[in-house]
Amino acid sequence: MTPRVLIRILLAEDHAIVRQGLSALLRAERHFAMVGEAKNGREAVEMARTLNPDIILMDIAMPLMNGLEATRQILAANRAAKVIILSAHSDDEYIQRMSEAGVSGFLEKQTSADILTIAILKVAEGSVYFSPSITKRLRANLQNPRTREGLVKVNGNRLTSREAEVLQLVAEGSANKGVAAELGISIKTVEKHRQQLMNKLNIHDTAGLTRYAISAGVIESSVQLTII
Q1: Sign of torsion over alpha carbons 148, 78, 137, 62
Q2: Which class is 153-227 in CATH?
Q3: Residues 155-207: pLDDT tens digits?
Q4: Cβ-proximal residues to 138 (8 Å cutoff; 6+ apart), any chain
Q5: What is the pTM of this model?
Q6: CA torsion angle for 23, 110, 87, 94 (degrees, to 10)?
Q7: What is the C-alpha to C-alpha distance for residues 49 and 179, in angstroms, rounded to an integer?
Q8: Which CATH superfamily is domain 7-140 in?
């Protein structure tokens, strides 16, 4: 299982102290080469495109764009990309969504350094690696298939990537003007996407969108609690 060449790794993690600790840990491993560190999902998508890493270690709950949507966009652009989720969130809903998105591995953040190394090596070889407890839960969920196409599917209608981005930014507290500036689109276009996602979700206020985003795992429950 020893690689012939260095495995190039991109790390996506919004908490600086966790990112720095993981980066130091991975740099100390002689088989690995850190090629980039992203602080949010949007950076991860761009860095995956420009750096073409062998492995992408991805957190789920990140600002601007969460790890699930980032993973979906990365894999849509490059089906050969290999994403390993390393997250504090390991409930069935997160695991099911990430599995459907096409990730190559899923580990809890409390995973030991040895297990993390094994997972990276196995995924780099072309295998899929989920921690034993997660594998057991995935097998139990096989009788409840879901869509493999995207982040959220409601009444047969899947949110587009842009609608998912607007949902996260709105739920994080951005007004239409801020969403437009962040995504590089017009306020009118933001309003159109916002109305479309509200129609699909049958939710018609910001507080409802935020509650939905939290329940769907788009943002963490600590975000925007003041309007819930």
Answers
A1: negative
A2: mainly alpha
A3: 445 788 888 888 888 888 888 998 899 888 999 999 998 898 888 888 888 87
A4: 95, 96, 99, 130
A5: 0.68
A6: 160
A7: 23
A8: Response regulator (3.40.50.2300)
